[in-house]
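I trust your eye. Have a critical look at both lines of this record:
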Amino acid sequence: MPGVQLGGHWLKVKLVGTRSNRSAIGATVIARYGGKKQAQAVLSQTSSYSVNDFRPHFGLGPELTADLEIRWPNGGVERIVKVACDQLVTVREGAGIVKAERFRAARPDAGLP
């Protein structure tokens, strides 16, 4: 249906520590949206066959924005409100969002003959 936007929105967060470690390992990102809350920690766990993405990825369903709370490893807390969906945001400790990369949604008919 043209003009109808279904769910499936997302937000990905890349953290850059300045006072904490640069990779922000040990930080927790909490996303609040539409009365829901998700929390994800930045971990460095790997094995010989895998590696973890250091960027927490949040599925937002039909919501278009989320409020973020970042708990840095050094104990600092940063809050960023109304972050738009469907993008990767880079948050530098103490400076907020320093970069945002928006991605276009795939066409529903992509890859079909």
Summary: Residues 9-102 form a domain with the Immunoglobulin-like fold (CATH 2.60.40). The mean pLDDT is 87. DSSP finds no helices and ten strands in the chain. Residues 7 and 61 are 5 Å apart (CA to CA).
